[in-house]
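The records we work with from here on pair a chain with its fold. These numbers are not coordinates but entries in a learned vocabulary of local backbone shapes. To see the layout at work, look at the sequence and tokens printed below.
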Amino acid sequence: MAKILVAEDEEKINELICKNLQLVGHKVESALNGEIALSLIENNDYDLALLDVMMPGLSGFEIAQKKQKDVPIIFVTAKDGLSSRLSGLNLGADDYITKPFEILELIARVKAVLRRTHKQETSFQLGDVLVEFDVHRVRKNGEDITLTPKEFELLETLVVNRNLALSRDKLLDLIWGYDFDGDIRTVDVHIQRLRSKLELKNEIATVYKLGYRLNA
């Protein structure tokens, strides 16, 4: 679990980002203008700050220039021009994501930055199941459970996006890739194997007419 600041002046977008980051296990604080965001950064220890580029008070770029704390930054903005991207990256940003974006994309970007800065969780416990990401190991009641590489990747994706509904198509893209020409039932087969091996029938829930969700 990481401690993340969300600085975004559009309340609905701010709430949406905060809610989904909390659902996947992060501790989140928010700011609706740049001055509050800068104050929060200077007076707290965050693992990551999501900064909207255009905010009242101070822009995301100005916050990046003025801050004294060394905190990783992802700029979130509607400005998708190359010059704006370069400006953000030149200010030391770890990533830059443009609106509109999919929540799963944002969560993936957050995960990537946390992994690079060694703030990502290295293990996850769900009941008697322990998932150790760094060594690709899964244990149940202290006993090793053998998973195929795809099964482990599917489990990790469910864990990272826990409490979020993931469509079969999205899981197929994330795990098998866009150029996979197999049947979408491949996802169902691997889900059933995970449920059986880990005895997580209730935890890995079917979302009617969509896909699956790990309830955690």
Observations:
- Residues 103-116 form the longest helix (14 residues).
